[in-house]
Amino acid sequence: MPHLELQKTEDTKHTQTTIVIVEDDNSIGLFLTLAFSEETPYRSILVPTAERALKVIESVKPDLFILDYQLPEMDGLQLCHELRMQQDFCETPIILMSANLPHGAFAHLKVTGVAKPFDLDELLDTVDRLLDQ
The whole model's pTM is what? Predict the structure, then answer.
């Protein structure tokens, strides 16, 4: 699946604020992408794998990542490690989502955990809070 990108065009103040969503469940990924498009001024890019995310960030510098924990081949925690080792993303906010988050396994990576199923309003509030820091 190629990556999907949606953004609002009427709000130019935040059009450069980009969120990369790494989610292999297409229905959840599309739900999040559409929610960001309809309810926020942020641009979102959906990619289905960690490997694809690493390719996308070669040309796009996201302001925030939302990662599923259980991804094929490389899980979300491994992707967090990869991102934190890159100078450009060592301080970029990361939200790690899963129904089975390994407690304490990611505290040193400065990652915010969100349990699935998640409340959309709470997730959007968390995104706003992290981007405002």
Answer: 0.86
| Degrees to nearest 5, angle at CA 25 with 76 and 109 | 15
What b/e string do you get for 89-100 counting C-beta neighbours within 10 Å, with b at 16 or more?
beebbbbbbbee
Q: Which is the CATH superfamily of the domain at 14-132?
A: Response regulator (3.40.50.2300)
Using DSSP's 3-state secondary structure scheme, residue 122 falls into helix
DSSP E strands: which ranges in 1-128?
A: 4-6, 18-22, 43-47, 64-68, 94-98, 111-115
Amino acid present at 97: M
pLDDT digits (tens, 9 = 90+) for 15-59: 579 999 999 999 999 999 999 999 999 999 999 999 999 999 999
